[in-house]
Amino acid sequence: MPNIVKIGDRFVGEGHPTFIVGEVGINHNGDLDIAKELIRVAKEAGMDAVKFQKRTPELCVPKEQRDQMRETPWGYITYMEYRQKVEFTPEQYQEIDRYCKEVGIQWFASVWDEPSVDFLEAYNPVCYKIPSASLTDHKLLKHLRSTGRPLIMSTGMSTMQQIHQSVDLLDKNKLLLVHATSAYPCEPEELNLRMVQTLKKEFDLPIGYSGHEVGLVPSVVAVGLGACMVERHITLDRAMWGSDQAASVEPGGMERLVKYIRVTEKALGDGVKVVYESEKSQMRKLRRVDDSL
Question: Using CA atoms, how far apart are residues 223 and 225, in angstroms rounded to an integer?
């Protein structure tokens, strides 16, 4: 039976409710008020956690991209300046931590480098997310394991061999593996939802799904295929500036996503065929031959 991972006050894995995560990511565009509004609407929609992204731009931005110019909400600036503007300060993360506790929702972040891990340790996060881009960064993975915290690892852009190598470096009792395709937005034919089942067979781990599609149906289907966690980018408005906005879910969509997932959980049942009490009146009314005696 797949492992069950405890994330904060939630058990995540087979037999437990789907862990639904709203990824704020960088959709806040460096604005703390937008971040707090996303936290609030995620909580009101019934999501279990929100997730941010933490990078050290000086380490994560390739040298050849640093001086590239681009249009941004802050004007025509270099890519490095843009990456710096979407990173929150320690004081802003302190406010995020305080506000999440106030509204009653868990938060954590994807970490892209070792200093970002050390930075977030000050906030006692419930877990860390390993983004698909960092799956092959074995030095980072070992550093994350040393924190002793639960880890969620996305598998986009990765081969099965690379996934195995990275899983072997981590504590399997504190690891949740997530199927993802790293395209924003992702076309339906590349979602490959059956990978949820493949990963369940390949690894003795709880398996989740991180969706980058437009719409809600594939994320709900992933739950039907066995995903114990669903993560979707969230936004206040898909028309906002930013590369992830188009593949994100707006507040009304968040509410529907949570509702559809919770209905799906109930509808899946246990796979044991029974005649329900609700069927018996129909059986007496409609069945003409009973050969069970």
Answer: 5
Domain range enclosing 58: 5-286
Measured in residues, the chain has a length of 293
Mean pLDDT along residues 238-265 = 95
CB neighbour list of residue 290: distance below 8 Å, 6 or more residues apart: none
CATH number at residue 160: 3.20.20.70
Write out the two tokens for 180.
Answer: 């993802």
Judged on CB neighbours under 10 Å (0-12, 13-18, 19+), 176 is buried
Q: In the 8-state DSSP scheme, what is residue 190?
A: G
Q: How many domains does the chain have?
A: 1
Residue 129 has pLDDT above 80, yes or no: yes
Q: What are phi and psi of 127, to 5 degrees?
A: -170, 180
In angstroms, the CA 242 to CA 73 distance is: 9
Closest by CA to 169, choosing from 137, 197, 199, is: 137
Q: Against a cut of 0.90, is the pTM above it? A: yes
Task: Render pLDDT for 8-36 as a digit per residue (tens, 0 to 9).
Answer: 999 999 999 999 999 999 999 999 999 99
**Is 136 a domain residue?**
yes
Give the separation between CA 170 and CA 190, rounded to whole angstroms. Answer: 28
- The answer, yes or no, to whether residue 1 has pLDDT greater than 60, is no
Residue 38: closest CA among 263, 262, 240: 240
Q: Retrieve residue 269's tokens.
A: 């049942």
Identity at 195, one-letter amino acid code: M
- Count other C-beta atoms under 10 Å from residue 80's C-beta: 16
Is residue 291 in a domain? no
- Is 232 in contact with 260 (CB distance < 8 Å)? no
DSSP readout, 209-270?
A: EEE-SSSSHHHHHHHHTT-SEEEEEB-S-TTSSSTTGGGSB-HHHHHHHHHHHHHHHHHH--
Residue 186, helix vs strand vs coil: coil
